[in-house]
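Q: Convert this sequence to structure tokens.
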Amino acid sequence: MEAASCCAGGRCGTLISVKTLWAMCLVAGAWAQGFPEVKDWGAVRITIVHGGCLGPCPAYSVGVLGTGEVPYSGAHNVAIRGAGTRTITRAEVEEIVSELRRAQFFSLQNEYQADSDQISATVVINEVTKTVGYSSGSATLQAVSSLEERLVH
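A:
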């Protein structure tokens, strides 16, 4: 059986089988839920869709593309109705991706309890897609909520 060694900082740990290492990674969720490294910034897409509700909740979508393009479309109960686009710098795009990485976005549940308005955030990096549904005011998704605030207001 093939073996792998865990070496960090010049110190080597116990030899373990590759099969065992692979199983440990699956259990830890490293394969499915790790935040992917960006290989092509032009293929990065972040989208937040605020679906509205039966009351006065806003309905709009806003996104961030790896190119720096920030498309927006406001439907109702928003200050700006219609579609528009603005541009942010590459450094700002990288900062947004870093915030999502720190928030472990790809490790979040797919759905959080939605008591009122329904919001979804989708992040696509290297063709790996993660969508999370939630409602406004969800403390669990503070990083996404602050991103939404920054892009819309």
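Strands lie at 3-8, 11-17, 45-51, 59-65, 69-76, 82-87, 119-125, 128-134.
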